[in-house]
Design goal:
Layout lengths: L8 H13 L4 H13 L22 E8 L2 E8 L2 H14 L4 H6 L4 H4 L2 H4 L2 H22 L1
Antiparallel strand pairs: 1-2
Helix pairs in contact: 1-3, 2-3, 3-7
């Protein structure tokens, strides 16, 4: 991913809010989301299995956890351009963090950048499902 890796989830959320503030309207913001989605790391076909599938999304989404409680890494992808962009934002906030930070971090960027108001209900549900699954992996790593 070509975005700089912020050292905390809070810094990542602040940086995302700043970036989205540059765009005047939602057409530009959606385009930026699509561009972010195109920058996701390549996702191996063999990971596109039921084991990694996130249910509750209208589009197909796969989330693969790795690492341990000290530093968890997530890979994810979707068959939808906008959802891939949402994944890029989620990974930027939550991937390569400690399980404790992941569990403790609320996704405030969703509200801050206005995503909550501009996503369809099915996309909002899918985003919520992805966050639940990601946090569940982190909680399991802490257990």
């Amino acid at each position: 991913m070509s975005q700089p890796q912020e050292s905390t989830a809070a810094e990542a959320q602040a940086a995302i809010a700043e970036e989205f503030a540059f765009f005047g309207d939602w057409t530009e913001r959606y385009q930026y989301l699509i561009d972010l989605g195109r920058q996701l790391a390549p996702f191996p076909e063999e990971w596109k299995s039921e084991d990694y599938r996130v249910h509750g999304c209208q589009s197909m989404v796969w989330l693969v956890p790795g690492g341990d409680a000290s530093r968890m890494h997530f890979d994810a992808t979707s068959d939808s351009a906008i959802v891939s962009g949402l994944i890029a934002l989620v990974l930027r906030v939550y991937s390569d963090r400690s399980a404790r930070e992941i569990v403790d971090t609320e996704p405030t960027f969703i509200q801050t950048i206005g995503l909550a108001k501009h996503l369809s209900p099915t996309r909002s549900n899918g985003l919520a499902a992805m966050l639940v699954k990601l946090k569940a992996h982190a909680a399991a790593a802490l257990a």
